[in-house]
Every structure is written in structure tokens, then in C-alpha cells.
Amino acid sequence: MSNSVELLHGDVTDGILAGFYAVGREMGHGFLESVYQAAMFLELAERAVKVRANVRLPVRYKGRIVGDFRTDLVVEDKVIAEVKAMRLIEPAAEAQLLNCLRASDVEVGLILNFGSRLEFRRRVLENARKVGTAPTTSSSSA
């Protein structure tokens, strides 16, 4: 009997995190977010992962589109990855990711921070819970 916990889309997030650490080792810190986003796109594409960049997510109010978000990466149509280059992951970055999850049918999100120390946050917002319910969370850093 195993004590391991199976994470929703854990296979996809594991692959993204492997790419995140590869990019971080190769590039170090100090570049703009757009540079890390492009590097992550290339890294994931080289790993034969389905990845899309700058994906538009329409935002609705009372059933009408009132604006949109652009999310950095959508991987395998299962995980949103937001790329950051800040000292520490700030609450505003986590709020942005949760809003992207709310605006889409994607349930799993990652914040990938290429700060002075590689750090990530994983968030889950199940589709069944997207109206008026707080998301479940987990996080880690390296």
C-alpha cells in the first residue's frame, strides 16, 4: 500500500516543473518574465508537450464577456502556467492565477517564479467549485 498522494494532472505538472528547473539551471535569474516564458515554451515543446502561449481567456459578468486575461502558458489543455520573475511570489500573482482558473475550464495552475531562488505554487480550482467557493491549495519551493 502506497502513502503517496495522487495530484490532479500530476503527470503534467511534474513535466512542467522538470522544464522549470531545467530553464532555471540554464538561465539563472535576472531576466524579464517574457524571456523565461519563451524559454519555458521552447523547453516544453522540445519535450513533446502540447503547449500554447499567451492564451486569451474571456472574463464574463452575468453571462456577458466584459474583458479577457492572457495567460502565459496552457499545457496539454490541463494546466495554466504563469511565469514570474520576482523576489518572492506575491499574493497578487496568486490572485491572478486563481482568476485565470476561474475564467477557464482548466482546474490546475502553476506559478513558476524565476527569482533569486526558484519557487513555484500549485493551485487547484475544481470546475464544480468555481462559483462562490474557495479553492484548495498546495505549494512548494526549492
Structure description:
This protein has 142 residues and is an alpha+beta fold. The chain has one domain (30-48, 56-141): Lambda Exonuclease, Chain A. 31% of the residues lie in helices and 35% in strands. It has 3 helices and 6 strands; from the N terminus they run H-H-E-E-E-H-E-E-E. It has a 6-stranded mixed sheet with strand order 1-2-3-4-5-6, sandwiched between helices. Helix 1 crosses helix 2. The longest helix is centred in the N-terminal third of the chain and has 18 residues, at 10-27. The radius of gyration is 15 Å and the shape is globular.
Helix and strand topology:
Layout: H1 10-27, H2 33-46, E1 51-61, E2 64-75, E3 79-84, H3 91-102, E4 108-114, E5 118-124, E6 136-141
Parallel strand pairs: 3-4
Antiparallel strand pairs: 1-2, 2-3, 4-5, 5-6
Explain briefly what this protein structure is:
The chain has 3 helices and 6 strands. By secondary structure, it is of the alpha+beta class. A 6-stranded mixed beta sheet has the order 1-2-3-4-5-6, with helices on both faces.
Unreliable stretches, pLDDT < 50, 5 or more residues? 132-142
Q: What is the radius of gyration?
A: 15 Å
Q: Would you give the CATH topology?
A: Lambda Exonuclease, Chain A
List the secondary-structure elements in sequence, H or E: HHEEEHEEE
- Give the N-terminus to C-terminus distance in angstroms: 28 Å
